Amino acid sequence: MEILFYIMIIYMLIAAIIAVETRDLLSSVICLGAIGVGVSLMFLFLKAPDIAITQIVVEVLGLIVLIRATISRDLTFISGDREFFGVVVSVVIVLIIFIAGIEVFRSMPDFGNAVFAEVPNSASNTYIREGVKDTGAANLVASVILDYRGYDTLGEATVLFTSILGAIVILRRKSRKQLEEIDK
Amino acid sequence: MKGMTIIVKTVSSWVKVLIFLFGICIILTGHLTPGGGFAGGVILASSYVLLMLAFGREFAEENLPLAAASRLDCAGAIMFAAIAVLGFVWGGSFFFNYLYQIYLPGKALNLVSAGTIPLSNIAIGIKVGASLFLIIVMLSGFCQDYRCKVDFTKTKGEE
Question: What is the mean pLDDT of residues B51-64?
Fold first, then answer.
């Protein structure tokens, strides 16, 4: 199983590098879709089908929007060289984040080793033990996101509502003044 | 003739129903199987996006007008908030699962179970589907207007 994860990670890394480096915008978007499929498969192998469904569906919808946005533009080829200063700064920043990441991952538990499952009265153990009795939902994820942690879902709904409100205000074709004139 | 070829139109007019039903199924059985309100809502929106890609934006807007979509969006949001506030009224705390604890216990693994969780799933599904449909229609309309306003060929010809 571990070797499968390594293959998936290498596949996603190659797709990500191509998505950044290619000069054709449409190929870049398609490589982004390949990364999304890889992430979804990883979630499926890690036994999280809820997240896998959401990931693949959102990826498809986002890909449609991106392709529709890029395919009709004339300027699909990016040209121009990189500046020396910018390259040096980004390499230094990536190196610092890499070293910090190594330190962080050293202190984390091993991959696939659920630390909280060993503590007797931790939150995750309580959810697994009492979830069906407390909420009556067979799907434990639904009982967590809509009952135990309902506030999180409310916040997510609020964020979605506000962002779509902003997008509609920015993207609408007629301004408020024009609409008022039409009404008159 | 707006939209794509007749093959795409015929296939998508059959497939859109199946996608829509699949979305409804994912939403309604969100408390039993993987899925739930968010994923089901995105699937509902994608059935309308298929309609938009195959038949053109105007056809999709006739099927679900933008005003109706924004009303559905607001209705889903207010429904979810109302379920939470009703828990305050009947149970004494926000997000209290009053249906399961007091009125309708149901039996685990049945469709009618888990109290307010399926209702919240339906509310979130309506909200997410309507809002994602809205944002994609707005984005595609924005592309068209952008091209109309900044017509590169015309300005070059005039120069």
Answer: 84
